[in-house]
Protein 1
Amino acid sequence: MFYRETGQFKSSYAADMAIFPIRQDRIALWVVLAAAFVAVPLLDFFQVWPFGGEYILRAILIPFLILSLAAIGLNILTGYCGQLSLGSGAFMAIGAYSTYKFCTGVHIPLELFTISIPPLPVLPSILLGALMSAFVGILFGIPSLRIKGLYLAVATLAAQFFFDWVFIRVKWFTNYTSSGSVAAPDLVFFGFTVTTPIHRYLLCLVFVSIFALLAKNLVRGNIGRQWMATRDMDIAAELMGIRPLYAKLSAFALSSFVMGVAGALWAFVYLGAWEPLAFNIDRSFQILFMVIIGGLGSILGSFLGAAFILVLPILLDQVPHALGVPVSVETVSLLVFVVTGALICWLLIVEPRGFARLWSTGKEKLRLWPYPY
Amino acid sequence: MRAPDGPPVTAGDVLLSIDNVSLSFGGVKAVSGVSFDIRKGEIRAIIGPNGAGKTSMLNIINGFYHPQEGVITYKGEARAKMRPHDAADGGIARTFQNVALFRGMTALDNIMAGRTLKMRRNMFWQMLRVGPALAEEVEHRHRVEEIIDFLKIQEIRRTPVSRLPYGLQKRVELGRALAMEPELLLLDEPMAGMNIEEKEDMSRFILDVNDHYGTTIALIEHDMGVVMDLSDRVVVLDHGIKIADGTPNEVKSNQAVIDAYLGVAH
């Protein structure tokens, strides 16, 4: 078959430790990147099917990219470091609102002095906002040094509810708008204003590509091994010199940073104008499902999970229309829930380690094909 | 194998000395008033019936338990209360009675994880994985490959350890401990549950580690044949108390030891 590594010899450990040591994988990656960076804009430019309207970009590709980024963030924490978190929505919200505040200027009059930051450009705002998210992530990660598993999940749930409340009640974050919803300022990057869907898509793509690469580098480096060691056997990890404090809090910080960026993109690029409801507990669960279904401890799994959770309901919604089956809109929306839920159950029974494991099992089979082993 | 009656082995400097150490959990005395020492370069066995406090002793040595009484002197320094990673910093590595590998990782990654203390590049460099960060990763990969060759586990380096048979898991665990380049290696029942060939292999590895790397080894083992053949000196614990200490032959003929193992008529 075409997927063989026969004849591909590595002459250095550096080559052996590349992200994709097998040539076919590298080719596949370049094809995907070329499709994402070149083919999609071209198709959009010429308005070729299915890019006739803006539907695919607006409703599928942009949210897919941003939620993949959020899933990568959660995967660092839950998949690699083994710390269950239900606070993804909160960290995304912190990223979004902090970015908003940095964009519109921060003014905090205190008794002794006044903190005043003039409105910043979008890119530094996003990074600073994500930094805020990382900081809060560290704070809420401190309980993880004492508690594990479901108990820690409850502690992160506290973060979720607390920040839901904060962004509804503390008017300062929304610049005292009467409705509580805020609108993102113009997206100006290096003098270029991002407006059209294709530009927004490319913006998200750049962010996601960069963060996916950095995350992949981290998880296969020393810190990644420390995270996984802490996840798999924390006592043995500690006896080998891994400091649980450093391993866990660095995972919380990086994970929250990435989720903060995702939150800022979600608010600024996808929604444009948003309310605190955009980052409620449903969002946290959605991202957790993506990570579980895609594959805990896999960067690729984050993308697969995001695609599944996001695209499946849309497909299910479209199928009866396409087949011309006369069902009412309400029935369809109910059916989507039922079928999605059933599929998730089925998938987790068949392959509890998610799509990423299915993918790697498939590749392993291909390498041996046509022999069973 | 070393002849049981061979000359008294290298009585080097004392690497670790345990002085009158007691540890209790509530009312249960796990270790009471035990003193012994471990000399540089020797293989020191700790034996005793079940519940004698052997594993507790190892846990005390690598800082996982904090004894209520007694002094532990490691490399000439009396140790204050220390955390396990401080012990690891100081060059103490160990393996576990029940294999404690990182089950989600490959054999290679498990052993690489043992190098974690030797890796200096910060997270920022690791994120970029270029230049010095990549060079560091490659350098440590070299060292790990040496260990993989030494333990003859080349063909399983990419296998997730959860898929490996028990004997190989034990070997990978030894590799992970060796990757730390320890001065003192603690082995908690390295041969538990192995068949005779596997035991012979493991014995050979232990002797080789001792010879080749000059690592001081303290091991707990229930197979008396192995203990008597491998170790230079043996300390015997029973119910948390030291009942004998000496060369294998001295210990073997000690009446208290025989009583502890075979029981005494009351």
Note: The CA atoms of residues 17 and 241 of chain A lie 24 Å apart.
Protein 2
Amino acid sequence: MKTNAATIAAPVVVRRIAKNQITVKRVLFYVALTVMAVPFILPTLWMISSSLKPIGEIFAFPPTLWSANPTLDGYVQAFELQPFVRQYFNSLYIALFVTAGTMFISSLAGYAFARIRFRGQNILFMIVLVGLLIPSEVTIVPLFQIFSGMGLINTHWPILLVSTFGAPSVLATFIMRQFFISLPIELEEAARLDGLGRFAIWWRIAMPLAKSALAAVAIFTFLAIWNLYLEPTVYLQSPELFTLPQALTRYADAYGGQLWNVQLAAATMTALPVLVVFVLAQKQFVEGLAQTGLKG
Amino acid sequence: MASSTPVLSDRARARSGGTRPRRALTYRQRDAAAGYLFVAPQVLGVTAFVLVPLALVVYFSLHEWNVLGNKFTYVGVENFERFFTDPQIVPVMQATGVFSIGLVFFNLVIALLLAVMLNRSMAGITFFRTIFFSPVVVSLVAWTIVWGFLFQDNGGINGMLEVIGIEGPNWLREGPTAMISVIIVQVFKNVGLNMVLFLAALQGVPRELTEAATMDGANARRLFTRITIPLISPTILLTFIITIVGSLQVFAQIAVLTQGGPGISTTVLVYYLFQQAFLFGEFGYGSVLSIVLFVIVLILTVAQWQLRKRWVFYEN
């Protein structure tokens, strides 16, 4: 800061004005942030609060954030109108299976591409990278026909197989490879001198060091599969096979009108557990999901 | 690594020779075998579920598949001719373009604005970061349903507008507002992700540079346009491409909010593909639309590589 005549002449006054200005600026800054936060946080709060409203109050005017007579009707009906427990289980087991499978396959492949020298390595890596460039929407038509020919439509197999082995796991392999390249190699060489085979080195030396990368892979894979919508819509037809995102859209009355309170109750049950885990493990979530943005 | 390998392989050879005299595999060979084994699931998976389908898309695009009659006939370039004469293609491509450009523009501007605002240490900053990021982890369909609920004619948004004396439109059922609504829903869903990437980039801007510029009399605006923006340009390009490629894949939001309507005003390419292939059973034409999507994504990816070489500086 430059010193000039004014500050020497009346330092206290200037400092007080400056201090007030800073306070005003600060308050304005927080007000601006709060206003900007509304479209980010209000929908989630609105979802939770509306899921607890009686059906007659759901479109009440003026809109209320909190109902005077909260009810669990929406939640009860969510289980009555569809096999919601079953659908919850479907989503959960598919997401967990694919996440575990992806962690296993991509850490193996990522490790080999990073550490082991073998002929044709570059070509094989290029093949895998192609999976990163092609959106899954491009291959959905032929995949549907392949699985249709195998009689696997209206089963979970297409989702399990394609998600675990196909394009979605490629980003994971890429991230694991980058991670293993960055690891110092000395530990592994020492293990090699001790006579450990590659599998043992991978499992006992490299993997325990890769926890952060594995956490990132686990988080973005789980969320991607949990949110999958096009694939279940294309492959699954029976309500008891549906995943949650599909089930959420199917709550309607006899005339096809949407049952908003039921739908919002089911949506809350789908979204809230993930949100809670996010708040508890924010750092890992943000780092893990930022990885999905680093491809390309 | 290379220098120590021969020693190792000798030892290993002695070892393996000691236990299993019949197998004369060197350490290097066994290591290579392990390598093939390790990458096999991923390589075979990508081949079976990406490369083969990609080839099949081209093959199917030359055929007509009648699901009911289960007839599969070669029709040559008929499906491609249909693409170029389909009166719906122009509006579909327009909708795709409007959605992508609108989404990318608002997403990047808001993400950058938030990143700049949050790139400081003040009380409560972490709290706000959590809030801005939270929609990213909310289930996509759940998020879409709530917004659909808010956008109803008698829903929350029009309710709030009415309180201040404005009569809102029927957002999802009228031409231009339907597209605006779909863009709004998607912008707020994923802005947090780009915000985090921008924050990381901003924290990588060296302090000495901004301080030196301030000493030289640069005001905040000049500092931002002349120092900050050029320095984070690699991240801007990256987020631009990721967001635009992601915008081409939008499906759930359209299916849940507007089903492509009103009319076909929000029918973007992927939704049109889904309609043609899976609702109307036009698998041959659906394959042509898949190829179009693939070509667009390919062009964007190649453009990104080229642009990275040309006008992005300071990349390490």
Note: Chain A touches chain B through 100 residues (CB under 8 Å).
Protein 3
Amino acid sequence: MFKGSLRKHLWQAMPAFAILAAMIAFASVFSEKFATYANIKNVISQSSTLAIAAIGQTFVLLQGGIDLSVGSTISLSTVILAQVSSVPGVGIPLALITAVLAGALVGLINGLGVVRFRIPPMIITLSTGSLVKGIALLIQPKPGGNISVTLLDILTAKAGVLNTSSLMALALYALAFLTLHYTRYGRQVYAVGNDALHARQSGVAADRVVVTTYMVSGMVAAVAGMVLAMRVFSGDPLIGDNYSMDSVAAAVVGGVSLIGGSGSVLGALAGALVLGMINNMMNMLKVFAYYQYIIKGAILVLALLVFRIKRRARTTC
Amino acid sequence: MLTKWNENRRYSKLPLRVYGLLLAAILLFFFAAQWKVSPSHLINIVRQNAPLGIVAIAQTLVLLMGGIDLSVGAVMSLTNILSTALMAGNPDNILLGVTVSLGFALLIGFVNGIIVARFKMPPFLITMAMATIIQGGYYVYTRGIPRGSLPDAFRVISEGWLGPVPIAGLVWLSVWGALSLVLYKTPYGRHVYITGANPQTAYLSGIPTMGITVSVYMLCSLLAGLAGLILTAFIGVPSTGVGDSFTLNSIAASVVGGTSFVGGVGTLEGTFPGVLIMVLLQSTLTILNIPEAGKSISQGVVIAVMVGINMRVRKPKRRKTA
């Protein structure tokens, strides 16, 4: 059905889908509560924030970078929503636009830091992550704030097991899949991740590709923040902290390579669902909640070990 | 004297510029405090920031060797919880608490080092995952409610003074002195620099790079454990996540002090003023009434700006994935 490089990239996502299928089978056998309508709805709505954040992370990873500011951008977005969205009249559109623009700005700073100042991606994104967290704390030091109820109604409107948030996630995945595999820009992202020097020599504006992937990541993280804000119905300057690592873990579990250039965004979706399932299964099996930290960390290390990074001598990117 | 110091030290020159920056930070702090600062206040700043000072030295070592350790903050939190739980207010248990906490710290460093060195994994992701695992570990251990207390005898580390010198400051300075000796006067120290500068060449020159990597990660975790114990002596109670902000602060202090992210360049003599600069900057922000947010913002901005400057000054090097 799929040809050439696309088949190869999708093949890398297969283990994640296999794990997901195995987990679903395991959970439905061992807990009769798992396969209920309410629980499946729950898993999907719990996973949608991470699933959305993982899209942006995948863009950045494919290009050969990494974005550790995702978590703080998510927090900032919830805070912006909590502060702006209930202003009467212009509140809702203003909040949504401000949040997405803020995400894009964070991405722009990350991207320029990488291409203009040659700061290693993990360092610049770690720093902007810290900076953005500080700004979120300045805007709203404590969890709370007023989120517009109208917005809540729109974003939690249901359609079967899916609500608006998960439909948004699905739409974003479709868009990302088409962009990465069927447009010139997507091909350039893969090319830069595979070999930035050769991509540049073949006429790819590598710097522009790098900067835009970080901006995509920032904007997508802002959307993930909106979905999260709707779920907890408040703004919280620290709520997103775990999403930086979780989004990397979701992408890596989904077969996206850390050195860039291979893997598919669909793998990230499977990875995000695997991580979401783990939480859910542990609740079902009545495991003490804090074990999830240990398990998530161990999964990231294991996934890294399984998809061993083959280091190549590469010239500067 | 200075030229003698800098002889044969292309990559560990005395970082005079950092001391200039420190002077500026002190002036800024005095200005923000409207000159109502006494000299004893400055000594107290040195005393209270011994934990950061020691963990920054640990981070500098790892950075020199070409790695990074994002789990130092979690190790500090872990030692805080473990040592107080084991001591449980009884002075007889001090030795037990210290040994077990430092033992765990060493084990964590060993695992970090082995995974990074043996499997050639990117250190920032491995240590970040490790930080999450440690965090989960102490949450499971305490069930979310840390218990235990410190015997008063242990608080000598934080409250004690030898004449005009605070003991915490003394510990900091002796760790600095000892590791300076190791770095500049022993083959081991040279190996750390060379491994950081170019791991392949180091390996081909017969340096046991794997052993160096593992031992530096272990040393780093051990020092983070020590910093955690001193921090515990200061705050006196167990509390989850007390070390969290130290991870980025230690990186910021190292980088301000002139340590490079690509490995092989930097000094402990730069890290010392680096720590004080970060602390004074954050104290200034506290005076200006933005403590928490100011801490995050200053860490982020300082790391980004300093690394940006460092990368501009040096010629772009081959990018490293680990």
Note: The longest helix of chain A spans residues 4-30.
